[in-house]
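Lab notebook: predicted structure, single chain.

Context: the supervisor wants predicted structures on file for every construct in the current expression panel, including those that have not yet been purified. This is the next one on the list. No modifications to the sequence; it matches the entry in the shared construct table.
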Amino acid sequence: MADWTGVRDRVLALAAVPGSGKVFGAGAHGFELDAPLTAAEVADLEVWLDVDLPEDYRSFLLRVGAGGAGPAYGIFPVRRGGSAGWRWVGELIEEAEPGMFAEPFPGGADPEAAVAILAERPLQDDFDDLADLDAAFEAWEERLGEVQYDPRRTAGALCLCDEGCGRAVWLVVTGPERGRMWRDDRSSGTDLHPMPETDGSPSDFASWYLGWLVAAETACDLDR
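Prediction complete. Output recorded below exactly as produced.
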């Protein structure tokens, strides 16, 4: 079980540390955190999602905050959106419609299809005419986008973080990968892939977030 004791205070304290602005992404989140959600709000969120959140993220929402300071440009805050239910504010990639959160991840589109299309990328050496190359590349990009950005690719996952340059981080909430963090490198022409710890083990929300906090404190010359 994740131990969030003192974590909120540690994060907020970094805002007053000289030089804390050198931590990557600090200019975006300023080491500020949204207020934690109440138990009733988290329960309502889970009903809306139709899933039980992984314990470490659920307890983070209750004890640390609904979002704010965190890895890279921070954790997208989750807020009630009136009649629309709940939403994560600032997500880079359009999330699955309500009802798709409960589907197994990855659901729908075959991830191997993207790999196959990536292998078919047009190469300049195969074309005598640049106009033909441009046309082939445009058609290839359209095919790749239809597969890579099919919303079913991220069914059962929550987009939680903007890493910059179009990269994002997702928390899987259903299926065999439930509770694990996945990096989204589709903008760089690769694909979604699990985020490992330094020892190669799967990364969960708590290890990912607390690893960032320790690194931020180290960068600010704070000993824990």
